[in-house]
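Dear all,

This email documents one entry for the complex benchmark we are building for the journal club exercise. For each entry we list the sequence lines for every component of the assembly. Then comes the predicted three-dimensional structure of the complex as a token string, followed by one or two observations. Please use this as the template for your own entries, and keep the labels exactly as they appear.
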Amino acid sequence: MRRAIDTVAVVGSGAMGRGIAEACLRRGLTVILHDASPTALDTACNALAASLQRAAAKGQLTPDDAAQVLEHLVPSEELAGIHAANLVIEAVPERLELKLAVLRNIETSVSAETIIATNTSSIPITRLSLPFADPSRFLGLHFFNPVSKMPLVEVISTMETDDKVQNTIELFVRDQLGKTPLVVTDRPGFVVNALLIPFLLSAARMMDSGYASAEAIDEGMTLGCGHPMGPLKLSDLVGLDVVCEVADALYDGTKDAALIVPNNLRRLLERGHLGQKSGRGFYSYT
Ligand code: CAA
């Protein structure tokens, strides 16, 4: 018999892992946050505390509530520390071998009742389910950046996922996180990234061809189409490393030329310009 979800473990403390952890904490859940790098874990916990303080300063919660929320954050340097979770969400970088290894270790670190989800943006969930002894408790749970603001979560089951597990997770997303679950098929990019990534690459390609500046492209889509931010600014927000990793994975799965990463984007990445998080991408954030 599965327990209601009261403790979520998030494995991987990058932008997405941290955002998922904060979203869960702010809805009253206990969160065990694990990262293989103690430095990354420390940075994530400090960023989380700072984000809660900013929310308190904006009057979204009282300073006491912010402190209380933070008390439910349990940083864990060891993967074994996740054993008490009812739900584990894997959010490590978008590399197949890494995800397979981490998921294998997660399954042996938790009880048989624990649901295990991956926040992969592009790798087929079925492929990630292969190392599982019990794939019936595994599914995809795809959040969007910034997690605190984006109301959608894609839910992706495989042929092996137990219907009860999917139902539990749909209820969790809707009733506990206050977001909208969208049940989608296990195909490359699911729904959102299958549409979004070719669009982001197409904007980078237009800029690379010299046809229009970054500012003109972004203004075109914000003022012309009502997008909240233009595609190049959005690429910087998502992270140019993430955009390229997702594009490469989608290209592998589809061989669609629209998913080939243009030169300007590759060059930025080679120079370590990852977008907002590194201070420079298509734009500068100093
Ligand atoms: N991280 C966390 N929070 C952020 C943020 C960031 N990078 N940028 C903005 N925010 C928060 C702000 O703190 C603020 O929070 P409160 O309302 O709680 O105070 C809120 O967003 C609004 O911020 P601003 O007023 O500064 O900015 P805005 O009104 O222009 O909105 C935005 C910012 C929410 C990012 C908006 O521009 C937007 O919706 N952009 C599109 C984002 C999008 O498309 N995301 C999906 C990316 S694809 C993806 O994630 C999938 C994948 O697998 C690659």
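Observations: The chain has eleven helices and eight strands. The mean pLDDT is 96.
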